[in-house]
Amino acid sequence: xxxxxxINAATGVRxxxxxxxxxxxxxxxxxxxxxxxxxxxxxxxxxxxxxxVSQLAQFSSLEALQNLQADMGDVSGNMSxxxxxxxxxxxxxxxxxEGSDFNYSGSPIPLAYDLGGYANDVKIKIVDSSGKxxxxxxxxxxxxxxxxxxxDGKNTEGLDAGEGSYSMEISATDDSGEYVGVxxxxxxxxxxxxxxxxxxxxxxxxxxxxxxxxxxxx
Length: 218
Prior knowledge:
Layout: H1 3-11, H2 27-39, H3 49-88, E1 94-98, E2 101-104, E3 109-115, E4 121-128, E5 133-138, E6 145-151, E7 164-173, E8 182-196, E9 199-204, E10 207-210, E11 214-217
């Protein structure tokens, strides 16, 4: 019987030809090998104390790493549950999110935009679900920053545009006629929350947006 076969017999480990090879060694297997090494070491040439301590340190490091991985998994799960709970609390609340689609139900709609630089001409187009421009509003000019306004639901003729889904398109230019970057925001009611791939998405108006796009809660 070979030396490795004797170790296998003593420790109850099957011959390697009988079991599939594993890519990783767990702490239990590591400890079995360490005990077998001590039991079958040559009495005339025992393992050096420094080497033995080094192996114990490796075992401790392996155990600590496995415990850390388990703890990190628990923390990640708890954080995910907390995010889901926080997102669920937004149902029924009005939030401001990055986007351009919104629902009009008869009350004035708050709209906002962020200018990437100074603009002296800002035009806001209100577009219905068919793609028709129902109203063009002159926005506020000014330096880089956020601006707010309300759409009263009226079309170009001053008549009620009707309830439904709409969107806004904003163009801004500076003194030289160059376009200025614009980010649009809408405020609407959170109807529901969807959890997908560990992330939370809000049904806001006629949009499905990630919870990290929320700019304000009311």
